[in-house]
Specification:
About 50% of the residues lie in helices and about 5% in strands. By secondary structure, the chain is mainly alpha-helical. Strands 1-2 form a two-stranded antiparallel ribbon. A two-stranded parallel ribbon has the order 3-4. The chain has a two-stranded antiparallel ribbon with strand order 5-6. Helix 4 packs antiparallel against helix 5, helix 5 packs parallel to helix 21 and helix 9 crosses helix 11. It is globular, with a radius of gyration of 28 Å.
Length: about 650
Amino acid sequence: LTFISPVLLRGSILAIGRDALYIPLPHFYSSKLLWDTMTFGGFPMMADPEAATWYPPAALLSLLPGTWNVFMILAFVAASSFMYGYLFKVTESRLAALVSGIIFGLSGFMMAHVGNAVIIHSTVWVPLVIWSLEQLRARLSALWLAAGSIGVALCLLGGQPQIFFYAAILSAAYAIVRGWNAPAGRWRYYAAWLLMLVLGTGLTAVQIVPTSELLSQSLRAGYSFRDFVSYSLPPRQTMIFPNVFGGLPESGLLLYFGHDNQTELTGYVGLLSLILAALGLIAAKKKSLGLFWLGVALLAFLLVLGDATPLARLVYHLPILNSFRVPSRHFMEFTFAASVLAGLGVAAIVKQQVSTIQLRKIILVAALALPACLTLLFLNQSHMAARAAQNGISQLSLLPWTNRAVSVPLLISLIAIAAICYWHRQPTSPMRSALLLSVLVLDLGSFGFFYQWRYFSLSKNALTPPPFAKRYQDSLEASHQRLMSFRGYRGTADEMPAGLTRLWGVPNASGYNALILKRTSNLLPMIDQPGLPLPWSEPEDRSLDLMAARFLFLPRGQASTDERGVSWLNDDMQVWLGQSCNQPLRKSARVVVPVPTKSTALAIVSRLACSSQIPERTAVARIRLTDAGGEVQPRRLV
C-alpha cells in the first residue's frame, strides 16, 4: 500500500492507460458474458483466457463496486506471501523468507507488468505450486495436494497461458530434481506431482476446451520464427543499469530509446539481491537446491535473449512453446530463481554459515564487477548514441555525474555493500535487519517506483460514460447497429476507443484481442494495423456495412506548418496507386472536398516507392482538377 500510494492518493485505478483497456479491465467491470456483443461483430469472450471469465478472484471481486485496485493489490500480496511460505519451508528463517517475498513482489518483472493484469495474476500462483511440491516432498498430504492443484488451475485461469506453461515446465523440473531423494518416497512423490498437475489442469477444462477451438480460428494459429523471437532482450541492453536506455521523462529520465518494448524487456531484481544470491550459492548448506535455482536462472536468461543464442531455434521446434512469442517473459523464472537464491543467502548469514572471508570475497567480486559493467557500458556508447539519435536525442552522456541512470545504480550498489557488511556483524539484530530490508526496498524501488503505473494509471472518471456516449448508445440500440473506432483501443476518449466503449455499454465493431478471429482481421485489417488505408478506400469495399457500422470515429487531424507558413495534416491519406510494395492493383483515386474552398494553389505531397526501375521524368500519373463550376484542369505527375 505504501509503495503504490501515489496512485491511491490520486484516486486512480491501478491500470496503465490504454494497455488496461485490452481485455481484463472492461470485463472486470462489466457482466461476465459468454458471448460479447459489444466487441467486433460479437466475440466468444468466455473462450479468451485474458478475459478471466472463469478466474474466481476476478469473478468474486467484480461483484463488489470499485474493487479493481483491491484485485491488483491482492495479487502482489499473494505473490510475495506464497514466496515467503516456500522460502520459510526450505530455510526456516523468517527474515530470509521476507527478503525473497519482497524481491519477488516488487521485482522489475512484476512492477513493469502492472498494465498487463493477466501476467501478474498468472504469476501469483507459481510460488504456491512450488511451495506445495516442497511440502509434498517431506510428507504426502491431501491438503497440499489440493493446494498445489488449485495453484495450477488458477495459474491458467488467471489469464496468461504462456506463464502457465512456463510454470508447468518449472514445476516438472523441480519435481524431478527434488523428488529423487524425497523423504516421502521418490515414486510416490512423482505420482503426487503428476496427480497435482492432472487435477489442476482438469479444473481448467472449462477454459481450455473453448480456448483451443478459438485458437485454431485466430491469427495466433501459427508463428514464424521471427514472430516467435519478437521482444527478445538484446545482449547490448544491460539489466544492471535498468534505465540507461531511458525511461519516462516524467521521472527525470531520457525518453526511452531501447528496443521495443521496455515493459517486456524488464527483468531488474535489484543489485543487493544479486549479492545475496551469490552468498547463498557459495555458503548455504543446501547446495543442491542452490545449484538447481542457479541452473533455472541461467537457462531462463539464455531464453530471454531469444535468437541471440542457438537455444531459441531449439525451443521453436517444441510443441505448444512455439505458440508463444515474447521470450523475455522467461524473466518470470529468472526473477523466481533470483528471489530464492537471495533468500538462501540471507538464511546462510543468519545461521552464521557465511564467514567474514567469504563475505569479503563476494564483496570484492561485486566491487570489481561495477567498473567492469561501467566499462562495457562505455564500449557500447556508440551503439546507444545511434539509437538515441533515432529517437530525437541529440546528446547522450554516460558519465555518472551527468546521467542519473548510471549514477543511481552505482550509488545503490555501494549502499547495498555497506548494508550487508553492517548487517553481517549482527544478523539477528532487529534494527540491522530492518536496515537491510529498507535498502532492499530502496534498490527495487529505484526502478519499480518510477515506472508507468505511477504516472499513467487510469483516472476513475474513465469508467463513467460521458454524455455523448449515452447519446450514441441510445441511437445504436434503436437501429441495432455499431460504431467503429478507426484507431481501435488506441484512440482518445472522444474517438470512442474500443475498451472504453465496452465499459460504457456502446457496441463497437472495433476492438483489441490477442486471439482476434482471422476472419475479422481480414475483413477490417486496420484493427491490428492502424496504418492501413481506410476501409472505404476501394469503392467495392463493404466491410463497414457487413459489421453494421453506422458511425466511424476518426482521430482529430494534427497539423504542422512548414517554413512557408502552409499548414499540413501530419497524417497521410494512405492512397496507393499502381501495383507494387505488396499493394493491390489500383488505377485511380478520387478526393472530394465536401465544402467548396477558395484557393489559389493546390499541392500534392507524394512519394515513389518500389519504383526504382522507372526512368527519370517519366509521367506516372494523370491528375484532373475540377472546380465548383465544373471546369477541368489536367495535370501530370512525373
